[in-house]
């Protein structure tokens, strides 16, 4: 790749990046976590922002869109531009009945049930950066767990949820396996922090909008705290 095609920087890129899928969440977190955020990218509706975080260091918050293919493009281009440490801050559907709406999961590994991560060479399970994942669990605000990444959101899966649960997956989502598969190839340190926005089993239940907004803010705060720890360790 000679130059990014889809991400068009209009502000500096920080070495550390939060990766929400939703552009609206990128804006919400930028307003909450950054001082005087500047738009980093708006091409293709993939909103991104850079600004100074509470620890005095620059932070970029860049949306990836939905699914592995879009995430792979954004992450690859961020790597070319100089990103080093990335944390996905996304939502997931709980498979484990012990999980509740609003819980946070610090992903230890992702089962690759999606096409993008498998196209990148993932075979079975891909693992998150151990130190960054441990930093996400400090204070007990997030619980460690394995998730499964898939390409489908609404379509019937013919019992796949129960099968994924039997393989150790606590929740299902769409982008984490792609991030974790790309990380070693792009010399990135990567982790994923997920908010339980839906209960999948035994029946589907969705978080209320106000509760989602509050949980998204907590999601960003926990991820930023982990990046602050990782930055200090790197220094």
Task: Name the descriptors.
235 residues; alpha/beta; Rossmann fold; 11 strands; 34% helix; globular
What can you tell me about this protein's structure?
The chain has 235 residues and is α/β, with parallel strands linked by helices. The protein has a single domain, classed as Nucleoside phosphorylase domain (Rossmann fold, 3-Layer(aba) Sandwich), CATH 3.40.50.1580. 34% of the residues lie in helices and 30% in strands. The protein is built from 7 helices and 11 strands. The protein has helices at 23-33, 68-81, 115-119, 130-136, 160-166, 176-185, 209-234, and strands at 16-19, 35-41, 48-52, 58-62, 85-94, 104-113, 125-127, 143-150, 169-173, 189-199, 205-206. Strands 5-9-8-6-10 form a 5-stranded mixed beta barrel, surrounded by 4 helices. A hairpin with a 6-residue loop joins strand 2 and strand 3. Helix 4 packs across helix 7. The two termini are 29 Å apart. The model has no long low-confidence stretch (mean pLDDT 94).
């Amino acid at each position: 790749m000679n130059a990014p095609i889809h991400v068009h920087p209009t502000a500096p890129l920080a070495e550390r990046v939060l990766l929400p899928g939703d552009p609206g969440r990128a804006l919400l977190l930028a307003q909450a976590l950054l001082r005087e955020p500047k738009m980093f990218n708006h091409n293709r509706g993939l909103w991104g922002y850079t600004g100074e975080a509470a620890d005095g260091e620059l932070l970029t918050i860049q949306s990836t869109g939905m699914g592995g293919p879009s995430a792979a493009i954004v992450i690859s281009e961020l790597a070319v531009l100089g990103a080093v440490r990335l944390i996905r801050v996304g939502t997931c559907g709980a498979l484990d009945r012990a999980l509740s709406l609003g819980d946070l999961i610090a992903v230890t590994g992702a089962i690759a049930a999606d096409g993008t991560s498998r196209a990148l060479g993932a075979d079975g399970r891909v693992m998150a950066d151990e130190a960054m994942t441990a930093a996400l669990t400090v204070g007990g605000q997030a619980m460690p767990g394995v998730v499964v990444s898939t390409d489908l959101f609404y379509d019937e899966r013919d019992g796949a949820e129960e099968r994924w649960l039997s393989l150790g997956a606590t929740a299902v989502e769409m982008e984490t396996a792609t991030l974790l598969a790309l990380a070693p190839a792009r010399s990135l340190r990567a982790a994923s922090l997920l908010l339980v926005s839906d209960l999948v089993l035994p029946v589907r239940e969705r978080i209320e909008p106000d509760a989602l907004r509050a949980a998204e803010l907590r999601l960003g705060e926990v991820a930023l705290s982990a990046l602050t720890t990782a930055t200090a360790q790197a220094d």
